[in-house]
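Annex B. Sample input.
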Amino acid sequence: MKLIKVAAAALNQTPLDWSGNCKNILDAIAAARVQQVSILCLPELCITGYGCEDAFHSPGLHVEAMAQLQNILPATKGMIVSVGLPIMYVGGLFNAVALLVDGNLMGFSAKIHLAGDGIHYEPRWFKAWPQGIVGQISIQDDVYPIGNLLFEVGGVRIGFEICEDAWVGTRPGASLSNKGADIILNPSASHFAFDKHSIRQRFVLEGSRAFHVVYVYSNLLGNESGRAIFDGDSMIAAGGEMLALGKRFSYQAFTLTTAVANLSLTRMSRARMASFRPEMDGDESDVIACPFEFPRQPLEKNQLANCQWAIGADPKFEEFTRAVALGLFDYLRKSCSRGFVVSLSGGCDSTGVVVLIDAMLKLATAELGFANTCQRIGIHWLNADQLADRRQLMSQMLTTVYQATSNSGTVTRSAAQQVAQDIGATHYEFDVQPLVDNYIDIVSRSIKTTLNWEQHDITLQNIQSRVRSPGVWMLANLNNALLLSTSNRSEAAVGYATMDGDTSGGLSPIAGIDKAFLRQWLKWMEVTGPLGLSPLPVLAVVNNQQPTAELRPPDQHQTDENDLMPYDVLDSIERLAIGDKMIPVEVYQHLHLEFPDYTKSELKQWTVRFFRLWARNQWKRERYAPSFHLDSKNLDPKTWCRFPILSGGYELELQRLAEFPD
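Annex B, continued. Sample output.
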């Protein structure tokens, strides 16, 4: 039997953090060495970081990346390690992987298929490597091959599919298999999205089966550069069977997933296939051979580690909690912020944000322990001698404030206080009504008009939201903390938010998720909660309310859905109109089938309202604080959903909807 121990490492990297990135790489290599790993796959562009954006065009970046590669080389003595970095070749920039063997650089495999959809913008920086081309690149007076190469190391053939290469129909793995590849390494930077884990599993398993190889998949981990969260998904498969699954959403700097692979089995499986046609044209120009002595590997039983919560009854709620919690944790420490500040209204949006912070701290301490969590956050800003437990840490990490006007109710005030107390936040209450009155008086006297609710409804609503911003910013400044905005995606779609009011903040952690989902998730957190954590019964004080901005006088009984439309209808229209790019008439026809309990007149009215509000409020979406990407429906105009700030506002399309027969 030809037994080889292989591994995939998930790394929590940061763009342009040369020392931090190199340390994680070296630590992962050292951990793999302790476990007697022979072949280690590290993630895509792990030296520089994946999210360097236009910094990829900096000549200095490439000089430093190559210097870091030279620093890593000695650590690979006795091992085979793949490391991702950008490479300049004949005037083009390529997303490449260096294969390091026994302390030597053997060459570079370059990415063939670039990711250019969703948040990915690789064609802006990189060129796609043409299949079948092999080049030569000079580095410090030595010449190395570059291309879609096959490395024959100690008689074992190793090839690459780099992230997107495995997501396309014409996978490079097929040609690598025809040339006798034994192992395919897939270094990836595949951001988290709901249900994406199962897609990755399918192409890893199918690649290992169809190509008759050992398939090793590694991914980034954590919030690398701000908006994208990486779940650290690592997998090893052989012959259509999963050998090992790594831990997802870890708070560690890296994780290591190992397996012992039997190359004799995969080779014989390929030989038995009648459909296999080996490439025998004699052209081995893309095969790079080098000696390597694989250690004798004893037979081990692979422990298939599976995350039970990923296959439980509520996987989407579990993923949402763990993804955003990890995203917040890394954003906190990488932005060098000293905690969070939230304007806690007692409603579901701001409550959802503080519950995610609570989950963040619980999940981090459960995995790392209390002391290591403090260390990883940055103990230099914590009053460590005053910290005895997680609850005291939370009191330093999270500050909340309820900002009341004359339109605020006792229910929301009590809810905010109870939630903050339950999770251990430092909580304040501000009375901002004098500020509201002062602004109204100043403007009224200046324009010589008394403002009233009949004529100046939006103006009077917005001023209440805006006067809440300076005070909460002061708390953030005093604490050197990160102010979190609490807007959700449903509100962003129709501009149901006050700019420079409730949109104030440096990060908007729930702007990537719709309101209907958020409300369901909060009920789940109240009665069930993530695996390993206790539910939060206190959330009943929030979940039993009808969502309201509380900006109109109480006798008007303001609710969000009365202002807009039912949230499930709004989210459906957004999916049809923005995700599926349907025109108003088409949206209306789908709604008629999806919501038979509403009248046709209501559905038509809500469709018109959505399209008008969407077109008018693109400028607001341009100004929202950064948000996390959680699925394929993000509305962030900077990285996903482009729309003109000025447009015709669908006037012709809405006129045709008005004329459309019911």
